[in-house]
Amino acid sequence: MSIKIRPITVSDKDRWLELFKEYIVFYKSKLSDEQFELTWQRLNSGFNINGLLAELDGEIVGFTHYIFRPSTWAVEDFCYLEDLYTDPKVRGKGVGRALIKAVEDIAIAKGSKRLYWTTAPDNETARKLYDKVAITDRVQYKIFLNQ
Predict the structure, then answer these.
(1) CATH number for the domain harbouring residue 126
(2) Across all residues in the chain, what is the average pLDDT?
(3) Which residues pair with 80 in a beta bridge?
(4) What is the extent of the structural domain holding 101?
(5) Alpha-carbon gap, residue 103 to 40, rounded angstroms
């Protein structure tokens, strides 16, 4: 079993879209077709949204999106891992960990001082992994605007 992490390319759109839609459904949310397309365009246009795919034995089985942002706490940017999803069939096989590690390596190479992300409190499968690879020392609050 060989995991390969690589940047998203234009030819990956169909599989990326399939996985991204599964991810949105997993979180019991909805996005318009226009938002899916806008995200795809941003991933492929040099906009400040980056994406990686995970391949397991040649099949695309996961993705992550990440963003670099300025910080008021450091001269260097922080890296926010916004989305991470693996096909349920391959969970527990190291795909999520490999995606996180790849983003971590990119953030280190860019000189970032922090890599951070959030997940739902009831996402127990993901939290088992996250508790192994990172610290949890913050509580997140949010207000949905213009809904």
Answers:
(1) 3.40.630.30
(2) 91
(3) 67, 116
(4) 3-133
(5) 19
